[in-house]
């Protein structure tokens, strides 16, 4: 997300707090945030959307009394809320942009002859990929930054059963290695599969070595299982991981 857009979103999310802040409250917030940072080692994180400056100050004072391990988890959860809100805004922006492009294309189509009309033959063009069909990235929401140097493993199901069973009974030997890499400084994985136009349909598992990345965290590793159907083999599958020491989430990106 561009820095200018992040700044604009952040300012909008804090608009209620800014509009309700007096000079004395701003000073008290600054003083308490300094005390908070000295105690916990990071700035006070809170989902500020719709909250007044007074409400934020009350929450800061209350959370200041927490044990560091408890506060770390709360801060990670608050950061997750902010991340999810901004992802929703980003997707909404892209959807509006795509809708505008679609309308322009439809209107333009009335004036520009299509390849089929010019040649008299239906087009059978297949999109050519410039990247692997399955990709990922990792965001450390407790730090608000990409997670670099995390080992990522991609496998595909080739067991005796059509699909892996819930609970994993009889799944031994069913997962077949497809590729692995480590995330770069942007938290993005290297090439996990070959660059092919049509990905093989089936059930895949992507695993992240979160235990090595954060030895004091709750998860020794995280695995995400997903299915690519025959009708989806030309699509791109981006499977990100949003992680903190005590929580994680994922979604299908593009």
UniProtKB/TrEMBL annotation:
CDD domains: TLP_HIUase. Residues 115-126 have a biased composition (Polar residues). Gene3D superfamilies: Oxo-4-hydroxy-4-carboxy-5-ureidoimidazoline decarboxylase, Transthyretin/hydroxyisourate hydrolase domain. Coiled coil: none annotated. Residues 8-88 form the Oxo-4-hydroxy-4-carboxy-5-ureidoimidazoline decarboxylase domain. It comes from the Eukaryota. Residues 134-253 form the Transthyretin/hydroxyisourate hydrolase domain. GO terms for molecular function: 2-oxo-4-hydroxy-4-carboxy-5-ureidoimidazoline decarboxylase activity; hydroxyisourate hydrolase activity. This is Hydroxyisourate hydrolase.
